Amino acid sequence: MTTTVNVAALEQKIRAISKVMIWLSSLGAIALVAAFIYVGMNDDILTSFLKKSATSGSSVYVLTPITRTLSLVVAALPMAGLLYVLFQVRCLFTGYLSNDVFSSSAAHRLENIGIMILCLVPLRIVSNSLIVLLATFHNPPGQHQFSVSFGSPEFLLLIFGGMIMAIGWVMHQAALMAEDYRQII
Questions:
Q1: Using CA atoms, how far apart are residues 22 and 18, in angstroms rounded to an integer?
Q2: How far apart are CA 16 and CA 51, in angstroms?
C-alpha cells in the first residue's frame, strides 16, 4: 500500500509549530531571566528555595551580601545552560521555518540540545549543593549543611537529554548519507 504525502500541508504544519516554538523558547528565556532576577532580589523566596534544597537539620540561613552574590553566581551556571538550550531550540525552529528540516545543521542543533540537557544534571546537582553550603557558611559550628540530591527531575533530564542527543546523531548520519547519495547521482 502506497501512501501519498501532502508536502504542502506538512510544510504548513512545520511552519505553524515552528512559529509557536520560536515564541515559546523566546518567552521562556525572558521569563527565566526575570524569575532569576526576582528570586535573587527577594529574601523570602530565596530562603524558601534554600529550605527545600537543604537536608534535615538547621534551617538558619545567613545571607550576607557576599554569600547572596556567590549563591546567585553559582545558580547562574545551570540557568545559563538552560538558556543555551532555549537558544538552540529557537535556532532549530527558525531553521525549520525556512524549510531547513532534515539538514546537518538541524541535526547538529538537536545534538547540542541533548548534550546540554545531559550537562544540566551535574550542573544542577553541584550548584544546589554549593548554594546550600554557601547559605549556611556563616552559621555556628555544627549547623553548616551540605546537601547532594539526585531525584526524578535529574533522571528525566538524563533520559530526555540522551534521547534528543541520539536522535540528533541519527539525523546527522542520515543527512550525511543523503548528501553522499546526492553526490553519487
A1: 6
A2: 42
Residue 175 lies in a domain: yes
- Looking at the 3D structure of the chain, how many domains does it have? 1
Q: Which range marks the domain in which residue 102 is found? A: 9-184
C-alpha cell at 106: 538541524
Question: Global pTM?
Answer: 0.84
Query: In this structure, which long-range contacts are made by residues 177-184, counting pairs with CB atoms below 8 Å and at least 24 apart in sequence?
Result: 178/102, 179/104
Cα angle, residue 10 at apex, residues 9 and 11 outer, rounded to 5°: 90
Find where cell 512545520 sits.
14
| Cβ neighbours for 20, distance < 8 A, ≥ 6 positions apart | none
pLDDT digits (tens, 9 = 90+) for 88-106: 999 999 999 998 888 889 9
Decide: helix, strand or coil at residue 82. helix
The distance of Cα 91 from the centroid of its chain, to the nearest Å, equals 15
